[in-house]
Design brief:
This protein has ten helices and no strands. The chain has about 200 residues and is mainly α.
C-alpha cells in the first residue's frame, strides 16, 4: 500500500486495477492490534504473556491458549485489546466475502473501527478507507502476491548464502536454479565408502 508502489503501478500499468491482498492488509491490522495490546499490558498486569495470543489465528492456538482468549476476549470484555481483537476477526471476515457483499462488510467494519476510540485502530481505519477500492478488488480477483513474496525470500537466502554475486548474470542464473527446484541427482558423499 506504499505510495511508491501505487505510483509505479499506475504509471506503468494504467489499465490495471490495483489489488491489496489479505496478507498485507492483515499485517497492518496486526500491527495496530499489537500497539493496543502493548499499551494495555503496561496498565494491566493480568494481561502479561498474552500479547502474542491476540495476534495468532485461532486455528493455530492450543486449547489452553483458546481458553485464555475466551476469558479475556469475550463480547462482554471491557479490555481494549479484546475490542481490537474482535475488530481483527471482523476484518479477516471481510476477505471471505465475494464482491457483492465485501463492500457492505468493509464499510461496516470501517465505521466500527473509526469509532473504537483506540488510536492505532482509528489510524488503521483511515488507511483502509484510503485504500478501500484496492482491498475490495481482492474480493473480485483473489489475487495474492504470496508466490512473489516466497520467491523473493528464496532469492535473498541464495544471495546471502553466496555472500553476493559478482555479476548480474551470475545472480540471475542462481535465482533460476533456486526457483526451479530441479532435482539434479548429484551423487551424495554420505553413502561413499572411505578408501584406505
Amino acid at each position: 500500500m506504499s505510495p511508491a508502489f501505487i505510483k509505479g503501478a499506475e504509471e506503468h500499468f494504467p489499465e490495471a486495477e490495483i489489488t491489496f491482498d489479505k496478507f498485507h492488509a492483515m499485517k497492518l491490522m496486526n500491527k495496530a492490534l499489537d500497539e493496543v495490546c502493548r499499551q494495555e499490558q503496561k496498565e494491566n498486569s493480568t494481561l502479561k504473556k498474552t500479547r502474542y495470543l491476540w495476534l495468532k489465528n485461532i486455528e493455530n492456538l492450543r486449547e489452553d491458549q483458546k481458553a485464555i482468549l475466551r476469558k479475556f476476549g469475550g463480547a462482554s470484555s471491557n479490555l481494549k485489546g479484546a475490542l481490537a481483537w474482535r475488530l481483527k476477526l471482523a476484518f479477516q471476515n471481510v476477505f471471505t466475502y465475494d464482491s457483492t457483499w465485501a463492500p457492505y462488510f468493509l464499510d461496516k467494519w470501517h465505521w466500527w473501527a473509526s469509532h473504537s476510540r483506540l488510536e492505532p485502530i482509528v489510524s488503521l481505519a483511515k488507511t483502509i478507507k484510503e485504500h478501500r477500492q484496492g482491498i475490495l478488488n481482492y474480493s473480485k480477483s483473489k489475487i495474492s502476491n504470496g508466490i512473489l513474496e516466497g520467491l523473493n525470500s528464496l532469492f535473498k537466502a541464495a544471495a546471502a548464502k553466496a555472500r553476493g554475486y559478482r555479476t548480474l548474470r551470475n545472480a540471475i542464473t542462481a535465482y533460476y536454479l533456486v526457483a526451479s527446484r530441479l532435482e539434479l541427482g548429484l551423487p551424495s558423499l554420505c553413502g561413499a565408502t572411505h578408501m584406505k
